[in-house]
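Please, structure for the following, as tokens.
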Amino acid sequence: MKTIVCIFILIPLSMVCAAQSIVGRWQLVKESSCVEDELSPDDAEHEELVNDMKSMSGATPQVLEFKENNTGSESTKIISRKKSYNSKGFLYRFDGEGLYFLDKKSKTIIEGFTVEGFAADSLIITNSTRVCETKIFVRIK
């Protein structure tokens, strides 16, 4: 009897844990930068400049792919624009509350993000050092 009760408890629990995996392909749908936060809402000239900068990003979808072995790839530079980080392949660590991108050789953290929201189909992350930079992703197939 105890075995049956344990089975009924553990099976749904394992389904929930499996559903909360970051593994898969995620497309960036929106990002905010610190520049946008610093502008006053009445400043039309600055708003036009920000819109021009956004329009220069191109029509190529920006996609991150996370693999089960804690490696991943990005279609374009999404995560870091640092010169020391010049590869589209990366290592990562995800613990549900934080998403960390690691150096391939030393395995030290290059960039860290706080997970603001995570569901089966959406991921919202904020840069740990620049809290005004937020990225919103949706899961794609």
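The radius of gyration is 19 Å. The longest helix spans residues 2-19.
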